[in-house]
Amino acid sequence: MSTADHAHHHELPWYRKYVFSTDHKVIAKQFMLSSLFFLFVGGAFALFIRWQLAYPGTPIPVIGSILPATWVTEPGSGIITPEFYAQLLTMHGSIMIFFVIIPFAVGMFGNFCIPLMIGTDDMALPRLNMWSFWLVPPAGLIMMAGFFTETGYAAAGWTSYPPLSAMTGLPTFTISGQTLWLISVFLVGFSSIMGAVNYVTTVLNKRAKGMKLFDMPLTVWALFITAIIVTLGTPVLAAGLAMLFMDNFLHTSFFLPDNLVTSSKYFGGGQPVLFQHVFWFYSHPAVYIMILPLMGVVSDVMATFSRKPIYGYKAMVFAIAGIAFLGFIVWGHHMFQSGMNPLLGTTFMLSTIVIAVPSSIKVFNWLGTLWRGNIKFTAAMLNALAFVSMFIIGGLSGVFMASAPVDIYIHDTYFIVAHIHYVLFGGSLFGIFAGIYYWYPKMFGKMLNESWGRKHFYWSFVTFNLTFFPMHILGVGGHMRRIYDPNVYDFLKGLGGVNEFVTISAIALGFSQLVLVFNVLWSLKFGKKAPRNPWRANTLEWAAPAHPGHGNFDTDITVYRGPYEYSVDGRELDYWPQWEEGKSISIHHHTVAVPESNDTRTFGAH
Amino acid sequence: MSNDHGKVLPSYMKVFATLCTLTLLTVGAAEFIHFGDLGPIPGYSINIFVGIVIAVVKVICVMYIFMHLKFDHPMLRFFVYVPVFLFFVMSFALNFLEKWTYTR
Amino acid sequence: MGDILHVLDMLAWFPENISTFGAELDSLFAIIYWVSVAIFFLTFGILGYFLVKYRYSPDRKGYNYHGNNIVEITWTILPTFLFAAIGLYSDDIWERTKYSKRVPTADVEILVLGKQFGWLFLYPGADGSFGRNAYNDRTARSLMSAMNPFGMDSTDPAGADDFVTENQFRVPVNSNVVVRGSSIDVLHSFFLPHARVKQDVVPGTWMNIWFNLFKTGKYELACAELCGGGHYAMRAEYQVMSKAGYDAWLDTKNAEVKAARSPQPAPAAPADTAAVASLR
Amino acid sequence: MSSALNLSHEPVTKVKHGKIAMWAFLASELMFFSGFFGTFIVLRNTNYEVFKHGAHELAWPLALLNTFILIGSSLTMAMAIYHLERHNNGKFRTYLGLTILGAFGFLIVKYFEYSAKWQHHLFPGQDEHTVFFSFYFLMTGFHAMHVVGGMIPMVYMFFKSYTKSAYPHPSKVETLGLYWHFVDLMWIFIFPALYLIFP
Ligand code: HEA
Ligand code: HEA
Ligand code: CUA
Ligand SMILES: [Cu+2]
Questions:
Q1: Which atom of ligand 2 is found nearest the CA of A40?
Q2: According to the CATH classification, is domain A3-519 in 1.20.210.10?
C-alpha cells in the first residue's frame, strides 16, 4: 500500500513498514486482519456447537470424517465428545471476546480513529503501540496450542470458574489447555493495558490546535473512556488470572476450599466464589469495553448519514461516562445464583437496573438524531441502525436478568446466550461492520462496494435474528447453556425443533460473513479510488489525504468547531468540517453561520 | 519541578527520615505492643488499624513528595484517587462473602 | 397464524410451575416482558417512522438542532422511575426467596451434594435429625471422602438411620423443603426448572435452598453450571408425593437402612460405605 | 508530505507523554495489586490462624532490612533525578548506581529468604500453611519481578551515562523514577501485610 505519499519519506525496510510498523494505521489494519481471522475460527467453533445441539449424536457433515481423533467419540465417527463440546464453547467464547471483539473495537478503531480524529500524526508512544499489537497473535497461538496438550483446549467456559479450571486431576507443573488459556488471556490483557495507556495519553496530550475535549467526536470520547476502563479493570483480571494460574499449575489454593474430595493434594483455605468476584470485576466492565467504542462509532455514522448534529452531544458523553462508572459497581449481577451473599444481590440488582438509564439516554438521543434528518441508507448507516435496534433488544433482555428473582430461573439458560449474542453480535459486531464500511475508504484508499455491502447487511441482519431470537424461547423453556445434549432431559424434549431452526439459520449467518471478506478483498483490488471526503463528513480524519501515509495529514490542522455541524443555516453545503475556518453563533440550540466578510467565504473549499 | 529549588533536597531527606521512623513504628505496633481487640473477628485488633494508618501516611509521603504529585499537574492525582476508590468498592463487596451468611 | 403467535408469545414456553413462589417469579417475568414489549414497539415504532419519514431526498436538508435539556431530563427521569419500580418490586421477591433469614422453618430437611457427575441426597431418616456430618459440624469435614462424601460420623448414634440416595429424591407436597447444598469437587448448580429454583453449590460452603411444591408428580433436577464433560448428563429425578405416600416411602427406606445395618460388618467407615452403595 | 508540518506539537496538558502514560500504567498497577490485596483480606479473615502461623515462619528482620534498602533506593532515585535535571551528570551517575545497588541488595536478601523457605519446605502445596505461602510467594514474587523490571532500564541508563557525555533524556529517568517509587510503595503495604503479625 505504499503510494506516492511515502515518496518523501526515507524508505523503511519492508518489515518495518508492514510487520513491525509503528504507524497507527498499519497497526489498525493488523488488528483488523487478525480479528477477521479469529472471527472465522471462533465462528467455525460455533457452527460445530450448533450442529451438535440440533442433531445430537449425528456425525458432523462434510468434515466429520477428518476430525482429529481426540475430538470425536471414535476415530472417523464424526460425532464429537462431551469433553470436546466443553472445549468448543470455551474456545468460541474466549476467541470471540478476547481475540475478535476487543481487538476490533479497541485495537482497530482505537488505533485508526484516535490519531486521525484528533488531528495528529501518530500515537503518543508509537513503539508501545506496536507491541500492544504484537502480543495478540502469539497469545492467540498460545490459546490454540491447547490442542496439543493432553487435555485438549481449555474447557471451563470463557469464565473459567475454579475449581474446574484449577484442574484438580493433574499433577503439579503439568501444562494443560487451561494453563495455556490463562497465559494467553494474561498476555492479551497486558496488550490491552499497553494500548489503553497509550490512548489515554494520546487523547489528553496530542489533540490538534484548538480542539477542546468537548470538540472531540463521540468515537474518540468513547474510546478514551473505554481506555480508562481498560486501564483500571484489566489488571484486576490479570491478578485473578495470576492466582488461578498458581492454583492450576503450582497447586496453591487461593480458590480451592478445604476437603475437596477429588484430590488429596490440596490443603484448602481458599474461596471459589472469590475468583468470580475478581473475574467479573473486570469482565463486566469488559462488556462495556466491547460496546462503548461502537456506540461512539455508531453515533458518528448516524450523524453523518442523517446530516444532523448528534442530538444532545454532551448528554451522550455523560452517558458514556456514566455507563463506564456504573459498569464498575454492577459485576455481581453475574453472580446472583453463585452463592454470593443475597444482600449483595440486592445492591447489585439495584445498581444494574440503574445502568439501564444512561443506556436509554443513548438510545433516545440516537432516535433524536434521526428526527428530521435526511437519512441516507448506505451500508454503514444500515449497520449502525442495526446496532441501535439490536442493542435495544439485547439491552431489554439484560433488564430481565438484572432483576435478581427473574434471574433465578433464566440464569445459565439460553436466555443469557440470546442476550450475549444480541449485545455482542447484534451490538458490537454490527457496530464494527458499520465502522469498517465507514472508514474503509480512509483505511485503504478505495471505496468498498456498496451493493455487496448491502447484501452482506441484509443477509446478516435477517439470519442473525432468525438465529438468536429463538434462543430467548429456548431459555424460557429452561434449556441450560453449555450442555452437550439437551435430549437427556424430558422437559427439553419440546425444544428440538427450535434448536434445529437455530442451527440452520446459524449456518446461513456464518456463510453470510464470507460476503464481507469477499467484499473487503475484492474492493482492495478493484474498488473505486476513494475521494478525500467521500461521505462529506466533518471530523478531522477526512481532512487527511485519501490514503494517508505516515504522518497522516498534508496540511496543518486547526479545529474551529465541534464535530457535528451538519446542515448549518447560512451555508450552502450541508456540512461544516471542523478544520474549516468560519464564524457561527448559536441560537436556541441551532448553529447559524455568520459570514465574516464577503471575501473570506471559503465554502466548498473541497 | 520548577518549584523552589532550595527546598527540594531537604524535603527528600525529611521524607526519608519519616519513612524510616514510621517503618520502625509499624514493626513496634505489630510485634511488641498490644493495643487491644476490636470486635469479634479474630485478627482485628487496634494494632491493625495503627498499621494501616502508618502505611497510608508513608504512601502519601512517597506519592506527594518523591513522585511529585504535590507539584505536578493536578490531573495526575486522579490516577491515584480512582484506583483507590475502586479498591474500596472491591474490598467492600468481597468481604461480604458467604462464609458468614451460609455456613454456621 | 396461531402457531406464529404461539412462537412469539414467550410466556407460553415456560415449563409448568409447581412451586409457591414460582408464580410470583413468573409474573415478575411477565411484567418485565410486557414492559419490554411496550418499549420495543415504542422505540422500533419511532425508529421505523423516522426512517421512512426522513429518508433521503435531495431537496431537503437535515435540521441543525443540538438537543434540548428539558427533553434530555425528561427521558432520563421517566426511565429512572420505571426502572426503580421494577427494582424495588423485584427486591421484595428476591428477599423472600433467597435471604437466609427468610428461609422458612423446615418440614423436611435434606442435604444435597453435587459431584462429577451426579447428585447425592442425605435424608435424616427415622429420627428426623441428622447425625454429625460435614454440614452441621465443621470438624467433621475431615471425614469427607469419595466413600463418605457427607462426612458422616459413624460413631454418632443420631446418624445411624441417615440414608443417602443418588440421583433421585422425594419430597412431600405442600411442605417447606429446606435443602442445604454443597459440592465435593467443582461448582454445580441445583436447578429445578419446574420449581423455579436455582442455586449454585460451592465446595466448602453450604447453601440454603428452599421450596414448597404444590403439585405431585415426577420432575427433573438439572445441573446448570458447567462442571466438566459430563455436565449435560448430571441429571436427577425427583418425585413430589402426597404426604402419606412420602411417609410410606420413608418407612421403607428406614427398614432398608435397618436391614443393611443389622449384619454389623465392621464398625466405622465401612458401614457408611455400605449405606452409600446399597441405597441407590 | 512536507516535513515542515508540525502536528506533534507541545503536549496539550504540558505534561510529558511518558509521564502521563506512566501514571496511567501505575493506576493500572495499583488495580493489579488491589486484586491481590482484596483477596488477601478476605482469605486472611477466613483463615486467620493459618496466616498467623505462616507469618511466624517469616523473618521480619530480613524484611525490615529490605524495607530500609527500598526506601533508601527510593531516596537515591529521587536524588538522581534531581541532579540530572540540574545537569550534574557525575552525581546523577553516583545516585543511580546507588539505586541499582539497592535493588540488587534487595534481590539478594530476597534470595536468602526464598532459599530458607525452600529448605524448610515452606512453599505452597506442602502443608496446611498453603494459603498463606501462596500469598507470600505471589505478592513478593510479583514485587520482585517489578524490581527486576525496574533494574533493567536503570542499568541501561547507567551505562549510557558513560558512553555519552551525559544521559540525554531526563524525562525518561523521571518516568522510571515514578515506577521505582511505586515499587517502593507496594512494598510499604506488602511488608506489614505479610511479615508482621498483628495480634
Ligand atoms: C456488549 C456486551 C454487553 C452489554 C452492553 C450488556 C449490557 C447489559 N447486560 Fe449483559 N452480558 C453480556 C454482555 C453485555 N451485556 C455477556 C457476554 C454476558 C454473559 C456472560 C457469561 O456468563 O458468559 C452478560 C450477562 C448479563 C447478566 C448475567 C446473567 C446471568 O448470567 O444470569 C446480566 C444480569 O443482570 C446482564 C445485564 C445487563 C444489563 C442490565 C445491561 C445493560 O447495560 C443494558 C442497557 C440497555 C437497555 C436497557 C436497552 C436500551 C434502553 C431503552 C430502549 C430505553 C428503555 C426505555 C424506557 C424504560 C422508557 N448481562
Ligand atoms: C462477539 C462474540 C460472539 C459472536 C460473534 C458469536 C457468534 C456466534 N455464536 Fe456465540 N458465544 C459468545 C460470543 C459470541 N458468539 C460467548 C461469549 C459465548 C459464551 C461462551 C461460554 O459459555 O463460555 C457464546 C456461546 C454460544 C453458544 C452457547 C454454547 C453453550 O452454552 O453450549 C452458542 C450456541 O448456539 C453460540 C452460537 C453462536 C453462533 C451460531 C454464532 C454465529 O454468529 C457465528 C457466525 C459464524 C461466523 C462468523 C464464521 C463463519 C465461518 C465459516 C463460514 C466457515 C465455516 C467453516 C467450517 C464450519 C469449518 N455461541
Ligand atoms: Cu454439575 Cu454441571
Ligand atoms: Cu455484566
A1: 49
A2: yes
Are C111 and C197 members of one domain? yes
Taking CB atoms within 8 Å and a gap of at least 24, the contacts of A450-453 are A450/A378, A450/A379, A452/A515, A452/A518, A452/A519, A452/A522, A453/A378, A453/A379, A453/A380, A453/A519
Cell of residue A237, nine digits: 483480571
Q: Do A236 and B90 touch (CB under 8 A)?
A: yes
Atom 1 of ligand 3 has which residue's CA nearest to it?
C188
Q: Are residues C121 and C239 in the same domain?
A: yes
Stretch D136-141: mean pLDDT:
92
Provide the domain count of chain C. Answer: 2
* Ligand 2 touching residue A480 (CB < 6 A): no
A521 touches chain B (CB under 8 A): no
Give the total number of structural domains in chain D: 1
Chain C neighbors (3+ CB pairs < 8 Å): A, B
> Taking a C-beta distance cutoff of 8 angstroms, is the pair C204, A455 a contact?
no
The contacts of residue A301 (CB under 8 Å, 6+ apart) are A380, A381, A383, A384, A434, A435, A438
- In a domain, residue D149? The reply is yes
Ligand 3 site residues (CB inside 6 A) read C 114, 117, 188, 223, 225-227, 231, 234
**If you search the block for the grid coordinates 408464580, which residue do you land on?**
C23
In this structure, what CATH number is given to the domain that contains residue D40?
1.20.120.80
Looking at the fold, whether C197 and C224 belong to one and the same domain comes out as: yes
Task: Write down the number of H helices and E strands in chain C.
Answer: 5, 10
Q: Mutate which of B76, B86, B91 to test chain A, going by most A C-beta atoms within 10 A?
A: B86
Where in the sequence is the domain holding C44, given as residue range(s)?
A: 11-52+69-100
Pick the residue of D14, D132, D134 with the most A CBs within 10 A to test the interface with A by mutation.
D134
Binning chain A into helix, strand and coil, the percentages to the nearest 5 are 65, 5, 30
- Tell me if B97 and A281 make a contact (CB, 8 A cut-off): no
ipTM of the complex: 0.92
Residue-wise pLDDT for A364-374, tens only, equals: 999 999 999 99
Is residue B53 less than 8 Å (CB to CB) from chain D?
no
Q: Which residue from A158, A284, A401 has its CB within 8 A of the most atoms of ligand 1, so it is best to mutate? A: A401
C150 & C195 share domain: yes
Residues 46-75 of B with CB under 8 A from C: none
Residue closest by Cα to atom 18 of ligand 1: A420
Condensed to tens digits (0 to 9), the pLDDT of residues D56-91 reads 888 888 899 999 999 999 999 999 988 888 888 888
Grid coordinates representing C213 are 411444591
pLDDT confidence band for C4 (50 / 70 / 90): low
Please indicate whether, in this complex, the C-beta atoms of B90 and A281 are within 8 angstroms of each other. yes
Determine whether the shortest distance from the Cβ of A518 to ligand 2 is under 6 A: no
Q: What is the CA radius of gyration of chain A?
A: 25
Beta bridge partners of A367: none
Indicate yes or no: pTM above 0.90: yes
Q: Are A567 and C39 a contacting pair at CB < 8 A? A: no
> A406, C32 in Cβ contact below 8 A?
yes
The partner residues of A584 in beta bridges, in order of sequence, read A593
In chain A, domain spans: 3-519
The answer to whether the beta carbons of residues A324 and C39 sit under 8 Å apart is no
Whether the per-residue pLDDT at C263 is higher than 80: the answer is: no
- Taking only the tens place, the pLDDT of each residue in A91-139 is 999 999 999 999 999 999 999 999 999 999 889 999 999 999 999 999 9
Question: Distance between CA D5 and CA C280 in Å, rounded?
Answer: 83
Q: Which of A282, D40, A241 is nearest to B91 (CA)?
A: D40
Chain A residue with Cα closest to B96: A341
